[in-house]
Amino acid sequence: MSAATVGLLAGMALGFAAYFGGFWAFLLVAFLGLVGLIIGLMIQGDLEMSDFTRSRDRQ
Prior knowledge:
Layout: H1 3-21, H2 23-44
Helix pairs in contact: 1-2
């Protein structure tokens, strides 16, 4: 699936959530989409937990 198709589907999902559920439903769908994206990237191997944390050792 191309990036444009994924973007279109995500935009449509957010639009439906905003129209039928209001602002809080829009935020919930956006947040859960972000969580799903992060998990998907981690499973795919493009993202690791170490990308979110920084080392306290500065040498």
